[in-house]
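Example A, followed by Example B.
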Amino acid sequence: MLKPYKRAEVSFELRKNIGHEGKNSEVHLAYDPNLDAEIVIKRVLKSELDVPAYFSESQLLYKSGHPNVVPILYASEDADCIYLAMPYFRRGSLNAALSKRFLTVREVIRYATHFLAGLHNVHSKGLVHFDVKPDNILLTDRDEAVLSDFGLAKQLNLNGVAEQDRSYFKMQPPEFFNDQEFDARFDIYQVGVTLYRLINGNSMFYDQFGTYGDQANFDFQQFRFDVINERFPDRAHHLEHVPARLRNVIKKCLKSDRSERYKSSTDVVSDLASIGGADLDWRYEPGMDGCRQWTKVQADREIRLRVDGTMQSHAEKRCGDGPFRRIKAFCMDSISDQEIRQFLRTDGNEETN
């Protein structure tokens, strides 16, 4: 018979600070000598925290492990802080990926399928995440998206709602301005904003948010009005390669009336799975002076469309290592947004010269 181990000692060395998650918590890269491994430690101040509730939600997530939810390796505490130990994901977050380049539609759909599976697991345990955003979606070594950071997660009560008085301001749903109790559709709204940012890039999102002013002069009333009336983020403003079906998925996630949103993350996945077409693999790159370029490489064929700041376009394609040849119909002095979308949908399927 095994004897209980009477002395258990948690030991780790905090190293690089790799992020702050609000004024009461920070994240460190750490070394655990017992595991002989690099891990991540989230340190949370106890001062304004319901400690038993925080641990109970962590315990529930630990017991309901899912491949697309970041696991908690262990939890500990001292007089001032709670420490949550998690695996170290070297690839970082989807937000970090966005800082390097624009994602293709296919990549966004693939990552969304992953983290939405994790979110479905969270909802099935009667929890609302309350903080779905690109920063809290990490990439594994297998390039799979996993949902992380349950610091704001709350258990639904017997009425199927949870109270929450904190939210990431830029991504809060309309109901947060007027209500105190919420259900899983709060997360669905944040899924919509996350998809909007993943497919269009952070710059489009932050440029829109910046129109309300800086912290000292923020126009809260206009922001509130625009969120409630489905004007922020701008549902009609997408990059040209974003297919209509994906735009519609995002629009449905962002409905101000909760009854019109998707009822579950699996419903979102179902509609994402139906998206297809020639525009899933375009890589978008903005350039200097308003120039933009879309590139697609498939098998032995490469296609490019460049549009400069005056809307003059140059389209070309090549096979293998051969020379690029102009796609005459889309080399224009002034190309319209509609013609750009036509090119991206059809691969510029015209005669070359």
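Example B, a separate protein, is given below in the same form.
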Amino acid sequence: MKVLIAGANGKVGTILSGKLWSAHDISPVALIRDPLQQMKFTALGVPSVIGDLEKGVGKYLTGLDAVVFTAGSGGHTGPEKTTDVDQDAAIRLIKDCKEHGVGRFVMISAMGADPNSESTRIQHYLRAKGVADGYLRSSGLDYTILAPGTLLDEKGTGRIQAAEELGFHGFLPREDLAVCIIETLRNFYTLSKTIEIVSGADKIKDAIVEVAGGGDLPPIL
């Protein structure tokens, strides 16, 4: 499976790229904005392409099997940039995938993402994510939305708790989220699901299989 990682230079994208370098069944392509970032991915052994999600990256999608959207505006930008990246750029990429025949789309969202969020802390972010998630659900693509709790820069434990609706908030190391993405790509039964994820007691692969409600299948090709 050949997969484009949108937002590859971010924290989750970088970890994911590194882990996929050694995967025998998934071949990553890193989408980056700055040519200076290419050296990092060359060192990881991951091919990269330079493009701007906000302008469209359709020319890079031919021949790909899937896209993972890990891009984000970052915590230090204002509401306008959040809308530009977390909402509009995500929707633009979904449209590009439909146009260029990329059927599989894994969206990295957030717990609480909702177009009508009333969060007092990150309302604009959660609303932007919610709009993008809603567009993906109605797109006709083979989608999975992963909604982690608050992300941490800690070493992964390899264990999570996952459900379509957990009913509570929690935390998740970015390294564990990267592994969740890989296991999601490998499991056909995750299609058309939104999966909330926090740290927990279950092995990642087992938790993804359980919430997906099916068996453990080879990668979708």
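On Example B: Confidence is low (pLDDT under 50) at residues 216-221.
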